[in-house]
Amino acid sequence: MNIRPATSKDKPAIIELLRKSLGESTIPKSEALWNWKHEENPFGHSYVLLAEENEELIGLRAFMQWKWQWGEKIYRTIRAVDTATHPQHQGKGIFKKLTLDQLERCKQDGIGFVFNTPNSQSMPGYLKMGWKVQGRMPIKIQALNPVKTAFSVLLNKKTPTPIANSTVEWNSTLQSFASLQPLSIQGIHTPWSSSYVRWRYINNPLFAYSYLSDNKNYLLIYRIKEHSRFTELRVTDFFIFNTSLGVKKDIVKQLKSLSRNVSADLLTISARQWNAYKDQLPSFGLIPVRNAGPSVTLRDLSVTSEFETLMNMNNWSFSMGDLELF
User: Which residues contact 196 (CB under 8 A, 6 or more apart)?
Assistant: First the structure.
């Protein structure tokens, strides 16, 4: 078995392997998605390692680059994402070999730690390779229209989702904040930049994101997620630049108007991010739900003396958008 880093020439074979191994599922396998995810990421190109046998691609392991900020410190990290093994070569330990090899390469390149949100099926394999469970991300929820939701569930009715903000609208609003910095956040969070917001939310080929903003004090990013019998208004990110009088009232007013317009049943938000801004945000009547978010895992690469501190979820202010699968 030959193991080597991927090159741009490998993309057609990579996409084909992903299709053979995983199928299309809800996330399409395409070069356009691969380019956005692994090459256009403002944090840098992904680390992609391939396994070959008899000149055939039989395995891949991709780690997406990410940055986290805590005070003035920036952590260079990786997020364990795409992996695939050819159906005819499963059971040979390819996933483990590629993962451990890639981790060592990333460590030598100065990466601090790796994080991801594995499901129950993949969790045991990660734990065997040294990952540690930090816990489940807590979220806060608010039932926006309990009566309407109850009827929707009983009648199995769904409401059409409105069209998201256009790219022109996005660009105009983002330009308003391009030279500004959000209020200081105490916990570990993804660093603000207009290039990050543009990549993560405007150019995202998988989901349509929209925003609420007054173009000077705050930017709240959300998406409408349709479930089988209810509609979720998911706040994926928000940034507050100024706490001038009237900001709280304006956020409440816009959120209430939005929830009516989209006929949303449930508002969800990261409890960790909400806590980071709780002094600047109005009380939405949100109820904390501790075990509803994704399970977060970390593995130390080169931050050994700080790792126990990083394992404490109370030190984090991640958003829903930080941990969404994409």
Answer: 42, 43, 190
With CA atoms as reference, report the closest residue to 141 among 227, 199, 16, 74.
227
Instruction: Point out which residues pair with 276 in neighbouring strands.
Output: none
Contacts of residue 161, Cβ cutoff 8 Å, sequence gap at least 6: 224, 226, 231, 262
CA distance 167 to 146: 33
Joined together, the tokens standing for residue 317 give 């202010």
Predicted confidence band at 134 (pLDDT cuts at 50, 70, 90)?
very high
Which residue type sits at 266?
L
Structural domains of the chain in order of their starting residue, each with its CATH number: 2-135+295-310 (3.40.630.30), 139-289 (3.40.630)
> Which tokens belong to 240?
């507050």
In this predicted structure, the answer to whether residue 155 has a pLDDT above a threshold of 70 is no
Query: β-strand 73-85 against 113-116: which pairing, if any?
Result: parallel
Residue 25 to residues 28, 65, 67, 80, 83: CA-CA distances in angstroms? 7, 24, 29, 19, 14
Return d(Cα 204, Cα 48) in angstroms, integer.
20
Q: Which of 261, 26, 250 is nearest to 163 (CA)?
A: 261
Instruction: Report how far residue 79's alpha carbon sits from residue 47's, in angstroms, rounded to the nearest whole number.
Output: 10
C-alpha to C-alpha distance for 244 and 324, rounded to whole angstroms: 31
Stated as kind and residue range, the H or E segment containing 69 is strand 56-70
Residue 213 phi, psi (nearest 5): -165, 155
Is 0.70 topped by the overall pTM?
yes
SS3 288: strand
pLDDT in tens, 266-281: 999 999 999 888 887 8
